Amino acid sequence: MNAEILFVKPSRFEDTLKYIDYISNDVILHINFHTLEKKISQRVMDFVSGAVFIKEGTIVVLGENVICIIPKGKTYTKEYKTMGETVMEVTYDEEEEIRPNF
User: Which alpha helices (DSSP H) does 3-88 contain, by range?
Assistant: First the structure.
């Protein structure tokens, strides 16, 4: 695997096996759960969390249904874009950007 960061949007629970493989290969993984049922999203998150724990990585919550997995030994910078005066909280801004520091 040559990718430094992968952006994925699971459509079924079985996609989790690929994500575990990416995590075990120390790939930064951005997961968007927006199209997945909440119950299945939770199952995927449970499995992914276990793999991240074993690899001593970090899970960064980017938004309501978006996470980023950072492998051990890699650093990141989280920047928020300013939204002006809106009802939406900054913590749920889906326009956030995570950039790996190389």
Answer: 16-24, 38-55
Cβ(21)–Cβ(39) under 8 Å? no
Helix (H) or strand (E) holding 56: none
Sorted by sequence, the CB contacts under 8 Å of residue 48 that are 6+ apart come out as: 16, 19, 20, 23, 31, 59, 69
Structural domains present in the chain: 5-101 (3.30.110.150)
Q: Residue 95 pLDDT > 60, yes or no? A: no
Strand, coil or helix: what is 77? strand
Round to whole Å and give the CA distance between 60 and 81.
17
Which pTM does this prediction carry? 0.73
